[in-house]
Amino acid sequence: MPAILANANEFALTSDYPIEQVIYLESGSYTLNSLASSQFVVIPHGLPFTPLVGGGWALVSDFSVQYNFASGTTPSTAPSTIYAQTMNIFADSTNVYIEGFNTSASDKTIYYRIFGLQPTDDDSDVTHTKSEGDDFIFNTDYLHLKVAYSGYEDLPATAGSEYDFDITHGFSYTPICAAWKTATTFNGTTNVTAIHPIDTLNTSGQGVLFTAAGTGYVELVNPTFQSATRVHWRIYT
Amino acid sequence: MSTSKPSRFLINSDYASLKRDGLAVVQTTLSGSTSIASGSTFEWHEDTTAGSAGALNLGLIQSANNGRGFHFMNAINFTKTGTVSGSPTPYSVLCFISRPSATTVRCNVQILNPYGSTLTTEASDDTITFAAYTLVAPYA
């Protein structure tokens, strides 16, 4: 266990923790049909493992207003849905999937930016995402996310039960956390067992909730556990 | 094209990184025993400024009366028990973080009354805390 630096989250770099390294980047655009429900875009990723994906999307090409995956545009009228348009993201061993929803009666052009992380159960060589000498990737104006702890947990196959998994971090503050779970989704005519960011499934109530109490531990909770699945997690400082 | 094993480096300039550039914290107290007319939605939101244009949100939401701590999500939805026509009745509280403009983070609470009579929320107050780390990731 590394030494606990009380305010490690206020440093751009501390040698106690590795900087999170992004191993996959992809961007593009596509047309989201009017009133689309679960419209998929499939993007081969070419990696030797399933990446832990994240990123965002926008309705404008310059990304001046960007939404997280599993988040979206605020409806202009009283809410029958949280978001007027929203995108989810998944990945399996071959592809990255973007799933779009649109409550509007008009088509929307969606611009997306995806990043991927390497899971801790894989140690493959990975192609560099940055290789140009004039492309600065470390800027001390920002607080880079440093990986304090990472790993995975295989949840037991006990349908309908709650499963709690605590990770002691020792920080006096609530650290930034992220988690991804393996789950089965539906892609057109194909069932896909894919890795989702936990946030993707939040409003369905079927995801693992990832909570941080700020008192020294982080907790993974799955209130509606249905089948054995692997959860990958990161705790950043 | 070169490759390497990211896990063996503390820092490696051949890979992009995730950069934090802001934090927004907003708190509100929902008064207990609030009346919501049939078919109406209680709506509260507050805007704050955080991060640079185009930043992503890493959202945390906590209800003092529900759950174990901060939920690392941009939206949570939990059930409480109020009353409709004097009878105990469940209702949903939706809390979510949205981004209405380039550097605005909006924290929202919505309670829909789907019933045929007025819904009265639970008697105790509830403190909702929102936090959003903004992230320049990893394109800027």
**How would you sum up the global shape of chain B?**
elongated
Whole-number radius of gyration of chain B?
20 Å
> pLDDT under 50 segments of chain B (min length 5)?
none
Instruction: Name the biggest interface.
Output: A-B, 70 and 59 residues
The count of DSSP E runs of length 2 or more, i.e. the number of strands of chain B, is 11
Distance, first to last CA of chain B: 23 Å
| Shape field of chain A | globular
Write the element-wise H/E pattern of chain B from the N-terminal end onward. EEEEEEEEEEE
Range of helix content of chain A:
under 10%
Total of helices of chain A: 0
Cross-sheet strand order for the largest sheet of chain B: 3-10-7-8-9-4
- Mean pLDDT across every amino acid position of chain B: 86
Assembly of the depicted chains = heterodimer
In percent, how much strand structure appears in the residues of chain B?
A: over 45%
Q: Can you tell me about this structure?
A:
The complex is a heterodimer of chains A (237) and B (140). With 237 residues, chain A is an all-beta fold. Helix content of chain A is 0%, strand content 46%. Residues 201-207 of chain A have low confidence and may be disordered. Chain B has 140 residues and is mostly beta strands. Helix content of chain B is 0%, strand content 61%. Chain B contains no helices and eleven strands. Chain B has strands at 3-4, 19-30, 35-36, 41-49, 56-63, 66-71, 75-84, 87-101, 104-112, 119-120, 126-136. In chain B, the strands form two sheets. Chain B has a six-stranded antiparallel beta sheet with strand order 3-10-7-8-9-4, with no helix packed on it. In chain B, strand 5 (56-63) and strand 6 form a beta hairpin. Chain B is elongated, with a radius of gyration of 20 Å. Chain B starts with a strand and ends with a strand. The chains are: A mainly beta (237), B mainly beta (140). The interface between A and B is large, with 70 and 59 residues. Strand 8 of chain A pairs antiparallel with strand 1 (3-4) of chain B, so a sheet runs across the interface.
